[in-house]
């Protein structure tokens, strides 16, 4: 079955799970209960598993729900960091330096060579390790700024 869910489906599910009911989630999101319910059902249909089961007048969590909730918690926890990360990147742009390091070069020597670059807070260092010939080709194709071999 194709995954036709989107992150909005996942978000509505997450809010329902956190709030404990469709009605509380609908109130929090300022949406109709039917809208929330249909979005959660779309997620369940896409995943092929029920995430909630009826329990009296409310809903109860299934084992599948616990697994989905754990992943959703991680996703939305990271998502909450997005505005800050974008703001920080916009206010303190970094110079990116891509370095190739031959796999034959001792790690201690590599560290000593890169130490001056690592001291600069406004530099993002990306190091690629590989065969010397492959790194030379990357350097020739401008995929690397520096090559240590």
Folded structure, characterized:
With 149 residues, the protein is an alpha/beta fold. Helices cover 56% and strands 18% of the residues. The protein has seven helices and five strands, in the order H-H-H-E-E-H-H-E-H-E-H-E. It has a three-stranded parallel sheet, with helices on both faces. Strands 1-2 form a two-stranded antiparallel sheet. Helix 1 (7-19) packs across helix 2, helix 1 crosses helix 3 and helix 2 (22-29) crosses helix 3. The radius of gyration is 24 Å and the shape is elongated.
Question: What's the quick description here?
Answer:
Helices cover 56% and strands 18% of the residues.
Q: Features of this protein?
A:
149 residues, alpha/beta, three-stranded parallel beta sheet, two-stranded antiparallel sheet, 5 strands, 56% helix, elongated
How is the topology of this model organized?
Layout (H helix, E strand, L loop, with lengths): L6 H13 L2 H8 L3 H15 L4 E4 L2 E4 L1 H17 L2 H10 L3 E8 L4 H12 L4 E8 L1 H9 L5 E3 L1
Parallel strand pairs: 3-4, 3-5
Antiparallel strand pairs: 1-2
Helix pairs in contact: 1-2, 1-3, 1-4, 2-3
Q: What is the percent of helical residues?
A: 55-70%
> SSE order in H/E notation?
HHHEEHHEHEHE
Q: Can you give the mean pLDDT?
A: 89
Largest sheet: 3 strands, parallel
Radius of gyration: 24 Å
Give a count of the beta strands, DSSP E runs of length 2 or more.
Answer: 5
